[in-house]
Amino acid sequence: MDLDTAKQELEQFIPHVRNISDDSIRKMAGRDLMRFKQFKKQGIAVKFGRFSEKENNQIRKNVEEFLLITGIDSAEKLLFTSRYPEDKETINCLKAEHHFCEKLSEGIPRPWRLIYYRARKMFDPNNYKGRYTKDEKEKLKKYHALHGNDWKKISEMMSRSNLSVAMKYSEIKSAINYGPWSKEETQKLMHAVKEVIRKRMETEDRNSLSSSEKSHREILMDCERLYQKLPWTEIEAKVGTRYWRQCKQKWTTILTKKMTKGQQLYRGTKRLQAKINLIKRLYEMKVEDANEVNWEELRYTIGDVPRAYVQAKFYKLKVSYPIKTPFFFFLFFKEIVDYLFENKLPELEEKL
């Protein structure tokens, strides 16, 4: 399949495919296109964003079955083959012979690359190793000075995952301010967001949007382009004094204030009513996992606000009324919503 045809066929599943590198598109055409077509026949859309518990379980099942088929003795050897140079050739031959790509992605309607990254995160024994000590932070700065952004090499030297060392370095590379935002910092944040959105719009213009599509895009600009899928690590670098998560939270606050024209949506009786509405709507949706919630639709339950604002309010609601069990944070999303509906909703309605 030629490159243009691959782009055209993939575009029906991945709208932003023309922003992806040609090399990645060729790989997706081989690994993903046939799977995507099969899922489409079943009425299943290609998914992005956070993995659900069901998808995580499917990845575990796929990895365990592949280990049984091949006799490879651990998920670490399968997914981090370079750590075992003496077994590398044998493992790679087994992966090719038994179609590792196809087996790992079985039953999961996502691009193979994202499934592979998720599996590596789940099965990396160097992941989730707790807080960094002061000594580890100093070592991380030193290793970065020597090896730059070679996170694979640095992760091996520190016995931490690639993602962990990259994110931690992003946090400690410069002095981070944890106090109130200054006027100058806020202006830098707003300028940074404006710049990345402008670049994105210019890219879309080059990808030949029709005049009617451009007009429609301008209408949608205020309600979704200002908060969906922004490159927060890039914005963090432009602000310079704040960690990316702080930038995201601050931007949500700014945008909420602008979209609501400064109204206090979450104060007094409005606060109680918002909680009640949120619990009711989540319960009515009857979804099993938080990743299945249409937060974009749900945001109107509280008001014309960014969906990140609604997600944050649900998280606060969840931790404010924990179920009396030490395993609260391991419960499924539906169990938490059912608990809130059955036990906390009557209390809130009475209080209102």
TrEMBL record:
GO MF entries:
chromatin binding
Tell me the InterPro entries matching this sequence.
Answer: Homeodomain-like_sf, Myb_dom, SANT/Myb, TTF1-like
Q: Which ranges of the sequence are coiled-coil?
A: none
Q: Where is the Myb-like domain?
A: 124-172, 173-255
UniProt cross-references to CDD domains, sorted A to Z:
SANT (cd00167)
Q: Which example biological process does GO assign this protein?
A: termination of RNA polymerase I transcription
Q: One Gene Ontology cellular component annotation?
A: nucleolus
Q: Where is the HTH myb-type domain?
A: 124-161
Task: Return the protein name.
Answer: TTF1 factor
Q: What is the species of this protein?
A: Sula dactylatra
Q: Which gene is the coding source of this polypeptide chain?
A: Ttf1
